[in-house]
Design a protein that fits this description.
disordered N terminus; eleven-stranded mixed beta sheet; alpha/beta; globular; two-stranded antiparallel sheet
């Protein structure tokens, strides 16, 4: 039974501490849309998405009014298009045609993003999946709301280094094709290891083939709430600090559970999972960096940062799983640079480097996220950064990702402005020692020994 104190507490979290539901995402299977004719396939995709998700935005707005809970984004994820287009697509232009269809759906339904322009190639690539990957730069140029992801590794299969090398080249090409808008195409493209099938967050969201025909996944957020809770623990031991974060995460997740159940009932679509990731925004007071600095760090990047992030991530998960039986997606703490004012400040004051961010990804939810680097960075260097991050995910049996933006025409000391939730970012320096010989080995890095559990 919810009492008046809990109602008042939730209202305070919303009004003063930036608590929000970051996204309601409908996952939609496109398996029944497949056809040998590209025009028929695109028509099937458009009809399926616009039918299933026709009331998504309206439902989100009604829940916001009913409960006073901000729902920042309404999104859609679909079955990886590299699979769906395998029969019909004979060229990159065919895949771009699907991307435009997805973008038309997003515009028609007024959703923020649609994810699933994706390929899962952790062990090898089909000809169609290679075509999709090669089409990504053009697809990101000609669409506004389509997000793309490529899964290049997993703990079970190892890392597909041919795909890693290709993605370094694709990211460079995407940056160049969208250079008029500060290479923003790369902000809609992510490379993953151990990608989850039920992630509601962009740019890595897609609807896994093991999922139901359609599903509701909700992502909650609340760095500001956690930060305020942490500040009340100054001088306390780590046991008290951890307990406080855990209880706070429980309260945040219960808000998401309420929204998920309500959306499921109103849309008559099954509830899937709650992703309880702490996702920051550029708004002051809505920062993961502030949470870490609240534990006693002078700045994110200082010694102790990785330990502090490990505490935050683990306690968020412990509190969340008590609040909902269906926790999934990524769940934990995102550490994007451009979307977090505290992270931006740490980069600008020299406390946070790319290497320290990589170390932090060993214990957080995802990986190197929304990091702007010099446009002159080579594709081999980008592939090397991807390979390092994929290795962390493979060995540690966790999801890791790279969303990196080589901003054409810009260098260290300059900034890039993306706007909205994507924020802005200082251009970070990159280690310029060459790794091309390593990347050019090709083939597949084998799965680690601990993957053989069956």
């Amino acid at each position: 039974m919810i009492n008046l104190f809990e109602v008042a507490e939730t209202n305070k979290m919303i009004e003063q501490e930036n608590l929000d539901v970051r996204t309601i995402t409908i996952g939609i299977s496109l398996l029944d849309c497949m056809d040998h004719d590209i025009d028929v396939l695109c028509k099937n995709i458009y009809n399926k998405i616009t039918t299933v998700a026709k009331d998504l935005v309206k439902t989100g707005e009604e829940i916001e009014k009913k409960y006073g809970i901000p729902i920042v984004n309404k999104r859609i994820s679909v079955t990886p298009i590299g699979f769906i287009g395998s029969n019909a697509c004979k060229s990159t232009k065919d895949f771009v045609k699907i991307a435009k269809t997805l973008d038309r759906c997003a515009a028609e339904l007024k959703v923020n993003f649609i994810g699933g322009y994706s390929a899962v190639v952790s062990k090898g690539m089909t000809p169609a999946e290679r075509l999709l990957i090669e089409s990504i730069p053009e697809a990101m140029k000609v669409t506004n709301n389509v997000c793309s992801s490529v899964n290049v590794g997993s703990t079970k299969t190892g890392i597909n280094m041919d795909a890693v090398k290709l993605m370094g080249e694709i990211i460079k090409e995407t940056a160049d094709l969208t250079k008029e808008n500060d290479s923003i195409g790369c902000a809609k493209l992510v490379v993953l290891c151990n990608a989850p099938d039920d992630n509601p967050f962009m740019a890595g969201a897609f609807h896994g083939v093991s999922e139901a025909d359609c599903i509701i996944n909700v992502g909650v957020s609340g760095p500001g709430v956690v930060k305020n809770a942490i500040e009340k623990c100054k001088g306390e031991d780590f046991g008290k600090l951890c307990e406080t974060i855990k209880k706070t995460a429980f309260k945040i997740t219960r808000v998401g559970q309420l929204v998920a159940q309500e959306a499921s009932k109103m849309l008559n679509i099954p509830f899937g999972i709650i992703d309880l990731s702490l996702a920051p925004t550029p708004a002051v007071g809505d920062s993961i960096a502030d949470c870490l600095e609240g534990m006693g760090l002078k700045s994110v990047g200082a010694p102790g940062t990785t330990a502090a992030l490990a505490i935050l991530n683990d306690q968020v998960k412990k509190g969340g799983v008590m609040a909902s039986s269906y926790v999934g997606g990524l769940s934990g703490a995102f550490i994007p640079v451009s979307e977090d004012q505290g992270m931006i400040n740490a980069v600008e004051n020299g406390a946070l480097t790319l290497e320290k961010l990589e170390a932090m990804t060993c214990v957080c939810s995802v990986g190197l996220d929304m990091i702007a680097i010099p446009g002159k960075t080579s594709s081999a260097t980008i592939s090397g950064i991807i390979a390092d991050e994929m290795a962390i995910g493979m060995i540690n049996q966790k999801t890791t990702a790279v969303r990196i933006i080589p901003v054409s025409g810009k260098d260290v000391g300059e900034t890039v402005e993306f706007g909205g939730l994507l924020g802005y970012a200082p251009i970070m320096p990159v280690n310029e020692f060459d790794c091309s010989e390593f990347i050019n080995h090709g083939g597949r890095i084998p799965a680690p020994i601990h993957s053989f559990k069956n």
